[in-house]
Amino acid sequence: MRKVYSTTAGATFHQETPNYTFCFRKECIEAIIKMSPGEYVIINMTHTRDGHLLLFTNWGNYFNRMQNPAVQMPRIEKNCPTLYKVLVGEDPDNVREMVFGSKGHEMHGLGINLDSSVKIPIMLELDEKIMKAILTLANKVATICQELYENPPFPDWKKGLQEVWN
Q1: Closest to 84 (Cα-Cα) out of 36, 153, 27
Q2: Which of the chain's ends, N or C, has fewer CB atoms near its CB within 10 Å?
Q3: 160 — phi, psi (to 5°)?
Q4: Cα–Cα distance between 144 and 137 in angstroms, integer?
Q5: How far is CA 50 from CA 82, 115, 116, 145, in A?
Q6: Residues 6 or more apart in contact with residue 126 via CB below 8 angstroms
Q7: What are phi and psi of 113, to 5 degrees?
Q8: Which residue has the higher pLDDT, 20 or 118?
Q9: How many CB atoms neighbour CB 18 within 10 A?
């Protein structure tokens, strides 16, 4: 799965949907959202074993910076309130910190779990509700990255944003 941000789309945009497109990968379907020219958010979509559709943004090892939550969380709450709400499970859009993948191949990131019918392919499930969740997640990730860039809780957190780009 590609990381959350990319400078290239990796797919062609249809004339009716100039701000988003999809790319089929072996392990997932990518929703590629154009935030601005040369800036794309990658939302990975896959079914989970428990019957959910997972919308997942891969942040690699970025959140491994969380070594001492008792000290770090108050600064995150002050400097990056959107990220703080996600990390403590209080986000109004149900965006959560997640670990996805098999043991030894875990990916860390942010995502949304949606009810799903695993009996049909993801593309046949795409409806207004799922598209709204995809765009919500893309905008939430953009807000969090902006908070981390403009007002990082710790200097290394700003430098580390380079890790979330493909």
Answers
A1: 153
A2: C
A3: -70, -15
A4: 10
A5: 28, 9, 9, 30
A6: none
A7: -100, 130
A8: 20
A9: 9
Q: Range with the lowest mean pLDDT among 43-57, 59-73, 110-124, 133-147?
A: 110-124
How confident is residue 118, by pLDDT bands cut at 50, 70 and 90?
low
How far is residue 15's CA from residue 88's CA, in Å, rounded to a whole number? 40
Task: Give this prediction's pTM.
Answer: 0.91
CA dihedral 21, 23, 29, 34 (to 10 degrees): -40
Tokens matching residue 102:
């098999």
Q: Which helix (H) or strand (E) holds 126?
A: none
Using DSSP's 3-state secondary structure scheme, residue 81 falls into helix
